[in-house]
Each structure stands twice: as C-alpha cells, then as structure tokens.
Amino acid sequence: MANKTLLTLIRWLVILAMPFFLGMGTIRAIIAWDYPAFEYGRIAPDMFGFSPEERLELAQGTLDYLQRIEPAAEVIHLLEELRLPGTDRPLYNVSEIDHMIDVKNLADAIRWVAYIAGAVVIIGLAILLIPRPTRPFGWRTLMLAGLGTVVILGVIALLILIAWPIFFVQFHELLFPPGTWTFAYSDSLIRLFPEQFWFDIGVLISVTTLALGVLVGLVGYVMTRRSRAATIAA
Length: 234
Known about the structure:
The chain has 234 residues and is mainly alpha-helical. The chain has one domain (2-233). It is 77% helix and 0% strand. It contains ten helices and no strands. The chain has helices at residues 2-32, 35-39, 52-67, 72-75, 77-80, 94-129, 135-162, 164-175, 188-192, 195-233. Helix 1 (2-32) packs antiparallel against helix 6. The mean pLDDT is 93. It holds the Pfam family Lit. Keywords: Membrane, Transmembrane, Transmembrane helix. This is Integral membrane protein TIGR01906.
C-alpha cells in the first residue's frame, strides 16, 4: 500500500508540474529568442517616431536585461543607461524603471519555477519509467500529464482569444502591485511593447504550450498501448 501511495503521489506531482514545465519553459525560450524582430514586422510602427531599427535595438536592450542571471537591483543600470535616440534623455522614466524591476523579479521567478517543475517531471518520470514493473504506470502518467496541460492551456488560449482585455488586466493585477503597470501611450514601454505585442505573444505561448501538451500526451498514449501489448504478449 505504501508503495502504491508513493507511486500515486509521484504521478500527481508529474501531472501538476508538467503545465508549469512546458509553459514556463516556453516563456523562457521566447524571452531568449529575438521575438521583437519577428513581431515588429507584424504590428503598427511607433506613432511617436522610433524608426524600426531604433525600436528593435531598444527592445533587444530591454530583453538583454531580463535575460541576465543577476538580481534586478544589480543590472537595472542597463535600462537606466538607455537613452532616447538622438538625445541624452533616459529612455525609461522612474515609474517604468520600477515596473521593470518587478518584471525581472517575475521573470527570475518563472525561471526557477521552470527549473523546479522540470526537475519534478524528469525525476518523477525516471522513477516510474526505469523499473520495468512500473513502466506502464509511468507511460500513463505521461499521457495524463499531457492531457492536463492541454486542458489548462486550452482554457487560457480561449480566454486570450475571446476575453483579452479582461485577461490582460487580471493578469497584471494578479502579478503586479495595483497602479504600477499602467503607462501613457507616449511612454517608452508602451511604444516598444504595445498591447498588440502582448496579445500576440500570449497567443504564441499558449498555443505552443498546448501543442507541446498534445505531443506529450500522444507519446504517453502510444507508449501505454505498446506496454500493454507487450504485457499481454508476455
């Protein structure tokens, strides 16, 4: 009974960790990818005067800050040193800098969640799949983890598509202190990362993670059937 309880606990840990592993991993991959170079070709140009080249260079400098492994307080100078093109004026005002400290703290937390969830998934599946007696249980766990990811990300993708304004506001209210994440259209953060930017990246993250969940579920399903067939044949 104790062994069965342990296996069930590991199964649920894997199922619960899989959406975080795939989702947070996708977010980290997109941050590391030069996404603005792709997105700026799709959305409206900056109405306040950034050229496409200036906009891309400033966005890449901002993302470079988010990718640093050091705490926000140690690398925020990277943003403080950015200047509006052709001037000696700071690119970001004090409110924007404060918000970007919060954003990096969140990005760093996402990285650790991805690491921890990945460790749970990998170690949990190894425990279940390496021993031959528990292998069918392990493959079914993988299938259920993929299915759980599909359900969760399907709901998120649907919310983004049919209720984006509500989703966008609630997402920010949940993760950032009230009143710290709203800016004027003329502020640099909005000029570099307008709402359409976030809508598109939200769709990309949710659909990519959903597709990965489908792939994981299919692998688990196919291997579950094969393991059952092998057991019957034996």
